[in-house]
């Protein structure tokens, strides 16, 4: 799997992402050509310069608004941005990524200003440089064939910045809102400056699946995108491009647990179903013996970190528990793909897992087997075995 990792030791901004991607080999001519699909001809000029930040070489991407467009399109509303991207000639995957980034940024700005999404005057969302930075980043990731994006934790920075809304402390409110959305881990690197911009935070929150130390990977390229300011440390975003090593990925999961000894078991079963519907990855119960020998149930929920508040609220609402323990753990995943096979009973998906490039497991999707079994009025095991047999014949003699 092609992986991109944002190394944000000095922060992240839109121009830094764009510079890092160009440093990874994305052709400037190709990027400009693709950006014309937005219909912004004559509105901007993209310049790239090789610079040094504390002695470290990097590419500095500068988006310059041209002529009357300096003021005319300095701000747009979210519906305008959405219409602009959806109506463009960009590839569907680039559109989807770009829209997700802008939507996250628009959500944050709307919350900061306490206004409906469509009514907020988004300066950050609508500026020409933000459009080029965000859409250009999505174009670059697509050109590199990136399938998964991860990010390091973000530095909080410090000090003050001047904005259209006056002087604001760093990190600015929109960045804080974005960090809250994705439960982004943050740290202090000792630098008192704006290190993470709203555009940079939105790119990371929308595109990155997790915020973790650099995972095992086979490094192909490292791009360095320069920030504008000189800092006590190299003001550089490093972008690591490579393939996941050994077919393994590491991700952060949240684990919620509570014991319950005074609730109707049917309510516990209902709660488990609702937790899964809410986005939990796994929910299970175990019988336990509690104080004074009372029989009880240990409820365990494994969920994405950003689903913790919703899952906790549901448990408190539906059960009699007075407290929930929660922790974050790392889990290692095998590389997984879905292959579809044609059986005498119809199409069935096969979940295929690889470890160090070799197939170690292949299981028919049970829901597909159950649906085909009901349709043809045969035992579900008959469909399962038929799908397994078709897949094995296809891969006979091929361990990869």
Automatic annotation (TrEMBL):
Q: Please give the Pfam families that the UniProt record associates with this protein.
A: Ni_insertion
InterPro entries in alphabetical order: Ni_insertion (IPR002822)
Has UniProt tagged this entry with the keyword Cytoplasm? no
Query: Which keywords describe this protein according to UniProt?
Result: Lyase, Nickel
Whether Lyase counts among this entry's keywords is yes
Membership in a protein family: Belongs to the LarC family.
Entry's PANTHER family?
NICKEL INSERTION PROTEIN-RELATED, PYRIDINIUM-3,5-BISTHIOCARBOXYLIC ACID MONONUCLEOTIDE NICKEL INSERTION PROTEIN
Q: What is this protein called?
A: Putative nickel insertion protein
State the organism of origin: Thermostichus vulcanus str. 'Rupite'
- What is the organism lineage in this UniProt record? Bacteria, Bacillati, Cyanobacteriota, Cyanophyceae, Thermostichales
């Amino acid at each position: 799997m092609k992986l991109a990792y944002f190394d944000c030791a000095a922060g992240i901004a839109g121009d830094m992402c764009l510079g890092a991607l160009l440093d990874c080999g994305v052709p400037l001519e190709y990027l400009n050509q693709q950006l014309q699909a937005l219909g912004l001809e004559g509105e901007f000029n993209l310049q790239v310069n090789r610079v040094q930040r504390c002695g470290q070489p990097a590419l500095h991407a500068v988006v310059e608004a041209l002529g009357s467009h300096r003021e005319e399109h300095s701000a747009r509303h979210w519906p305008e941005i959405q219409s602009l991207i959806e109506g463009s000639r960009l590839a569907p995957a680039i559109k989807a990524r770009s829209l997700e980034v802008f939507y996250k940024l628009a959500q944050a700005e709307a919350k900061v200003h306490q206004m409906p999404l469509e009514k907020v005057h988004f300066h950050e969302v609508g500026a020409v440089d933000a459009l080029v930075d965000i859409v250009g980043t999505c174009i670059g990731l697509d050109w590199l064939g990136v399938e998964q994006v991860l990010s390091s934790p973000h530095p909080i920075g410090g000090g003050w910045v001047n904005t259209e809304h006056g002087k604001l402390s760093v990190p600015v409110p929109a960045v804080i809102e974005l960090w809250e959305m994705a439960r982004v881990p943050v740290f202090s690197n000792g630098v008192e400056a704006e290190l993470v911009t709203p555009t940079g935070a939105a790119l990371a929150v929308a595109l990155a699946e997790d915020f973790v130390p650099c995972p095992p990977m086979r490094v192909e390229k490292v791009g360095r995108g320069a920030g504008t300011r000189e800092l006590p440390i190299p003001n550089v975003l490093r972008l690591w491009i490579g393939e996941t090593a050994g077919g393994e990925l590491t991700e952060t999961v949240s684990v919620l647990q509570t014991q319950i000894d005074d609730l109707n078991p049917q309510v516990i079963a209902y709660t488990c179903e609702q937790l899964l519907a809410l986005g939990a990855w796994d929910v299970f119960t175990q019988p336990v013996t509690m104080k004074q020998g009372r029989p009880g149930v240990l409820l365990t929920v494994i969920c994405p970190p950003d689903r913790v508040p919703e899952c906790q609220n549901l448990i408190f609402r539906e059960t009699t528990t007075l407290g929930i323990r929660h922790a974050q753990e790392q889990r290692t995943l095998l590389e997984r793909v879905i292959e579809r096979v044609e059986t005498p009973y119809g199409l069935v998906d096969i979940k295929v897992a690889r470890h160090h490039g070799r197939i170690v497991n292949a299981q028919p999707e049970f829901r597909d087997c159950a649906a085909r079994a009901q349709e043809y009025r045969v035992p579900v095991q008959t469909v399962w075995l038929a799908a397994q047999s078709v897949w094995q014949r296809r891969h006979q003699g091929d361990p990869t």
